[in-house]
Amino acid sequence: MDSHDTMRYEWSWEALMHPKHVILVTVDTLRADHLSCLGYPRPTTPKIDELAKSGVLFTQAFAHGPNTGASMPSLFTSSYPLMYGGEGYVDGKGLTIAECLKAQGLVTAGLHSNPFLSRAYGHDKGFDFFDDNFSLGVARPLIFLHRIVNYFRYEPYLTGHELNRKAFRWIREHGQPIHRRGGRFFLWLHYMNVHGPYHPPAQYQHLFTRRPVSKLARHKLWKKMIHHGASITEEERRTLVDLYDAEIRCMDDCFAALIQELQALGIYDHSLIVLTADHGEEFGEHAGYFHLKQLYDEVLHVPLILWGPGLPRGEMISQQVRLIDVAPTVFDLLKLTSPSHFLGTSLMPLIEGQGGVNLDLFCEVLGRLNGARTRRFALRTSVYKYIVEFDEDGHLIGRELYHLPTDPRELSNLIDVPPPELAELDRKLKTFINTTGGLEAAVETKDDVDEEVKRRLRDLGYIE
Fold first, then answer.
1. How far apart are CA 221 and CA 461, in angstroms?
2. CA 454-459-462 angle, 5° bins
3. Which of 183, 402, 419, 426 is the most exposed place for a label (fewest CB within 10 A)?
4. How far lies 338's CA from each of 19, 58, 101, 327, 341, in Å?
């Protein structure tokens, strides 16, 4: 046996114990109940289903906010959205998972095209290589050219195939050499296919739509959805869902290509694969569309799948878990000490069948009422969802309570005939708000970010 064969043998033996690398895949706007492996009747996610069947699938995973700016900082810092001075920013929060893994010797890389995850919001913290598809600080003619291209494509972000090309280049030029030298890396990819405007390629549209929809018609329908959702007809709603499902299937093929690339380069078997989403999408539930300010399950329930060495195969866990729990779990699986400032809980006891883990979900988001800023907070247990809303002066202006086992769609507000449990729910939520300072959090105005970032936010429907 030559030295190369010996290295292969040692790698294989070590891979049986714990992973070397971490591949974090986040999918923008992917609601959990549209995945085949979570019971959706349409074949939207065949490759993700395979990962779930050979890994650990959490059927009740939830984000801490209904949009990227609220949820992704929680995933990266294992903290809550409004804790460190406002929604959206990572800068100023506790150390990110990238910073902590880099301190443990992993090379870190992040690639995406979401403006809320750009360096303008501090999301480049801890990354040795960071590509957010923005031309901040470069010649304005290049930015203008980029805008013209996106205008005619109606796509203000990278497609999954475009993101894959960038990712494959990094993996081949950096990831594989790191792997061969016995090093470790953390790679984060954020796919935007499922976020509107929905423009699935023709072969995916044909799988789900009743009849083809032109690109211009799709774009107009998207604009109507985010600006005039109350006037969406039932036929238009079904068309939006068809296009959304087609985008999920397209993203699933992009994910399949990523897995194939990792396998071809000999990296897959030595990696922890984490797949999740930042939030879901509204399609008329609670009279809402898009994903800006509601705290119902259609925007909070997200997929979470873990696959890798040291993990069981085909395990399904139904206990409630949270995005803040992902980072501590990653550190546990890598056999690294989890940073003390992480507020989440490692999910390893659940994975190992030890039980005894009862996790309350706290959510928060900045909203609007009659043009004024509001703050919404929610507590979700396995039995109840309790939502409260405050005006900009900190006065309570609304409360909702839902019994989830009998009312999973959250349609019957029990607040006027509350059960005895409400007092404890109210105490817990008040303690959370006071502890994290949610009522004192700054209102993020987006005035201090680059004009290119604001333009892209406008294209994605976040700014009028």
1. 12
2. 65
3. 419
4. 16, 21, 10, 8, 9
Residue 418 burial by CB count (10 A; 0-12/13-18/19+): exposed, middle or buried?
middle
**Cα–Cα distance measured from residue 124 to residue 386, given in angstroms and rounded to the nearest whole number:** 34
Domain ranges within the chain, ordered by starting residue = 3-359, 363-440
What's the chain's length in residues? 464
The count of C-alpha atoms lying within 13 angstroms of the C-alpha of 407, restricted to the half-sphere facing its C-beta, is 13
**Helix, strand or coil, per DSSP, at residue 111:** strand
Q: Would you place residue 312 in the very low, low, confident or very high pLDDT band (cuts 50, 70, 90)?
A: very high
| The CATH number of domain 3-359 is 3.40.720.10 | yes
- Two tokens, residue 425: 């729910």
Tokens 């995973």, located at residue: 61
**Contact yes or no for 113/192 (Cβ under 8 A):** yes
Structure tokens at 136: 């901040």
Identity of the residue numbered 416: D
Alpha carbon separation from 87 to 91, 126, 360 (Å, rounded):
11, 20, 21
The β-bridge relationship of strands 185-191 and 107-111 is: parallel
* CATH classification code of 363-440: 3.30.1120.10
As a whole number, mean pLDDT of residues 292-307 equals 95
185-205 CB burial, b ≥16 within 10 A, e <16: bbbbbbbbbbbbbbbbeeebb
Which pair of structure tokens corresponds to residue 318? 């139904």
- Spell out a b/e string for 240-253, using b for 16 or more CB atoms within 10 Å of the CB, else e: bbbbbbbbbbbbbb
In DSSP terms, 378 is beta-bridged to: 363, 387
Q: How far apart are the first and last CA of the chain?
A: 66
- Look up the pTM and report it: 0.89
pLDDT digits (tens, 9 = 90+) for 49-68: 999 999 999 999 999 999 99
Give the model's confidence band at 92: pLDDT under 50 very low, under 70 low, under 90 confident, else very high: low
The answer on pLDDT for 152 being more than 60 is no
DSSP codes of every residue in 74-108: HHHHSS-TTTTSSSS--TTSSPPHHHHHHHTT-EE
Sheet hosting strand 396-403, strand order edge to edge? 361-369, 372-380, 384-391, 396-403
At residue 220, what is the residue type? K
Higher pLDDT, 238 or 223: 238
363-440 has the same fold as 3-359: no
Collapsed DSSP state (helix, strand, coil) of residue 233: coil
